[in-house]
Fold this sequence. Notes:
By secondary structure, chain A is of the alpha/beta class. Chain A has one domain (about 10-240): 3-Layer(aba) Sandwich (Rossmann fold). Chain A is about 30% helix and about 25% strand. Chain A has seven helices and ten strands. In chain A, the strands form two sheets. Chain A has a six-stranded mixed sheet with strand order 6-7-8-3-9-10, with helices on both faces. Chain A has a four-stranded antiparallel sheet with strand order 2-1-4-5, with helices on one face. In chain B, strands 5, 6, 7, 8, 9, 10 and 11 form a seven-stranded mixed sheet that branches. In chain B, strands 1, 2, 4, 13 and 14 form a five-stranded antiparallel sheet that branches. Chain B is α+β, with helices and mostly antiparallel strands. Chain B contains 13 helices and 14 strands. Chain B folds into two domains: about 1-50 and about 235-380, no CATH class; about 60-230, no CATH class. Chain B is about 55% helix and about 20% strand. In chain B, helix 2 (about 20-55) runs antiparallel to helix 12 (about 350-375).
Amino acid sequence: MGVDINNxxxxxxxxxxxxxxxxxxxxxxxxxxxxxxxILQGEVVALxxxxxxxxxxxxxxxxxxxxxxxGTIYLGERRVSRLPEAFLARxxxxxxxxxxxxxxxxxxxxxxxxxxxPLYPAAMPVKTMRERAxxxxxxxxxxxxxxxxxxxxxxxxxxxxxxxxxxMADPPIIIADEPTAHLDAGLTAELLTMLTxxxxxxxxxxxxxxxxVVYQSSLITxxxxxxxxxxxxxxxxxxxx
Amino acid sequence: MLNFKLLEYSxxxxxxxxxxxxxxxxxxxxxxxxxxxxxxxxxxLKTEAVMTLTASPEIVVQRMLGGRHELIxxxxxxxxxxxxxVGKVTPRVWGYYYDSLVKxxxxxxGLAGYHEQLELLAGRFPQAPDEGVIGAGVADAFGxxxxxxxxxxxxxxxxxxxxxxxxxxxxxxxxxNDLVVLQEGALRxxxxxPDGFAxxxxxxxxxxxxxxxxxxxxxxxLPDSRPITRDELLHTYDSLFxxxxxxxxxxxxxxxxxxxxxxxxxxxxxxxxxxREIGILKALGWETSHILGAKLREAxxxxxxxxxxxxxxxxxHVFVLGAPVLMPLLKGWSVLFPTxxxxxxxxxxxxxxxxxxxIVPYLACTLIPxxxxxxxxxxxxxxx
Lengths: 241, 384
């Protein structure tokens, strides 16, 4: 079910995609209009644009968290835009690692369980899951916090837990929505370093951000600018040129 | 593997909200204990009644005159005894006695026909007109022991004294608790029952399948008689306890309804934290069925725990403590309540019904809102 990263074509292909919320109702909102985009394996794409431009909506469609109103989305060779919810859930679980703007950790659960719970439906044995979680916590310098409840962690620690959780299933694609929105300059630099390491491992990273520190960083290989739900600019930058 | 992991998640989720869930289990268990007590007690009393009536005669014949119970001529016994299939026909002399001092009804019976079924705890059956045997409830209410005097007022309001010669023990205290057994002659004098008449007749029938036929024959050949079969008595007890327990259940059902409304309110008002958690899990790859599976396990853990605890409480209340809260309501109007040990029997069908009316609605109250939350788009989580 996971994406085949060895295919020769684009990793993600978005074809004439539109997203309309409350479609057919008086309060309908057109969040995206006729977006077409191809993302290659190994790219680090920054989706930029002001608030309300459609960044998060596009990220949500790429991440199989919602379906487009029109158009088609391919993940590898698989057309995912019309798959049933159960299949989409499996794709989210196996192909994507998500880092949310507000981390979205389970606050009253230990750090270790936060890493393990999302993978419970996977076929991975608990013992293997635990071992993988401990390796990740070690790599993010969180071993001594494994039994601590998330609500007792600092913002930076929570950010690292969120990133560690995103890597639990060893996904080929990392999706991050405004990951630096709540971080100071030091923690932002730390996050960029971690993302750089993930990119070096061959992962594709897609970040929705309006933080110049992120989209102007050397990590980014491509910027896609959105305005009012339309794609207005698509530029390869830095190492992507 | 998945089942085990979902169960582990459910236990973790319950533990995280342990105060709230513990309070829920306590209230839930109390509701089940109340309803369960009514059902257990009713079934035990019915079983007790059946056990008691097993020793009773197959047919009791009364005489009806002017629409009311009258004394029956003893020579009716001869007529009935000649029907094929009839064994022994025994005239019984008995009556009710109300004592205004202890505000209790006693049943006074003549010796003939009773002592065959009953055992004495102590003493002996009356051998003189001024002797009597009393039930345990009478001994408790009036206080006399063997050799003491029991003073009753007869039909002419004269004080009559009886020496207590024995106290009853029966397999079922239900039979003898309010009983005073006197010699037949003494009882006739006490109630003013003339010779040649009895209160009723008991009829022994050898073949149980002939009971109804013989009862119909008695009614046909003795038109002023009213034969009452043992099955009719059992049916009366059954209806009586069903009616009383039904009244109580109707009252306690309101408690169940109140609880379910609370449960619904709690479940539909699924906390923002729980909704958020469901959304996060969905976004990270849980399917709706996984969420519902976990929530079903949570709901089952709560409802089954409450059901088992509630049933244990009901069992303790009914069979260990003797149902002090419900017994006066179910046993009836008497002051001399029998103090027998209830037979420890459980009707599995009733348990299944209790489980159905308490567990299923709770599961629905929990799963429907969880399903609504789990069906929402994980995109909502992405947007915070």
